[in-house]
Amino acid sequence: MIIKEVMKEVLTTVTPETTLTDAYALMQNKNIRHLPVVENNKLVGIVTDRDLRLSTSRLAKHPFEPKEAIKNIMSQPVKTTHPSDPIESAAKLMRELKIGCLPVIEEQRLIGIVTITDMLDALLLLTGINQPSGRLDVRLKNRTGELAKLAMLLAEYKVNIHSILTYPEKDKTIRLVLRIGTIEIKLIAKAICNAGFEVVWPTQLACAK
């Protein structure tokens, strides 16, 4: 999945001269938390609802007046992403920088924005949880053909695989998180166990005699 599949294309922006009051009112009206700052069709900064709250708080060392301009508190330069970037690359950057959004730039033009919420929506889509299905966690040995054997076993039971997520474990095994097209998890889990695979979840259903 790439950024253009999850980003919001309809953008609300402000200029550097927009006041803090007007920016906050705009966020409230549009129910958004991030405002790209654009000048002469170029992205020059970004401001968040948190920036606005902190900058005008009485607890701030030098609080700003509500009528001051956004340019005085906006973050710059702005980290951005491209519509063809993989979502995992953008998510990694957001996590490393501890930021909640990335403006999307194509040919030096702001075309969208992707937020943490968009990333969570993408994760839900990738896991297939929105479809009628069941979940299985299976631990595989890290060797060629293991996934193919598991897929063939599921095919024998005429079970469709909606999604597969994998990650390496510390003991050099591979954990598979499968979303499969059946709610008969007990039957499938026992069949997987009997075929020599290790079912991690649901353990209470997997290998009961």
Write the layout of secondary structure elements.
Layout: H1 20-30, E1 34-39, E2 42-48, H2 49-56, H3 87-97, E3 101-106, E4 109-115, H4 116-127, E5 134-140, H5 146-156, E6 161-168, E7 174-180, H6 185-194, E8 198-201, H7 203-206
Antiparallel strand pairs: 1-2, 3-4, 5-7, 5-8, 6-7
Would you write up a description of this structure?
The protein has a four-stranded antiparallel sheet with strand order 6-7-5-8. The protein starts with 19 loop residues before the first helix and ends with a helix. The protein has seven helices and eight strands, in the order αββααββαβαββαβα. It is of the alpha+beta class and 209 residues long. The mean pLDDT is 93. Helix content is 32%, strand content 25%. The longest helix has 12 residues, at 116-127. The chain folds into two domains: 3-123, CBS-domain (Roll); 130-206, Alpha-Beta Plaits (2-Layer Sandwich), CATH 3.30.70.260. Strand 3 and strand 4 (109-115) form a beta hairpin. It has helices at 20-30, 49-56, 87-97, 116-127, 146-156, 185-194, 203-206, and strands at 34-39, 42-48, 101-106, 109-115, 134-140, 161-168, 174-180, 198-201.
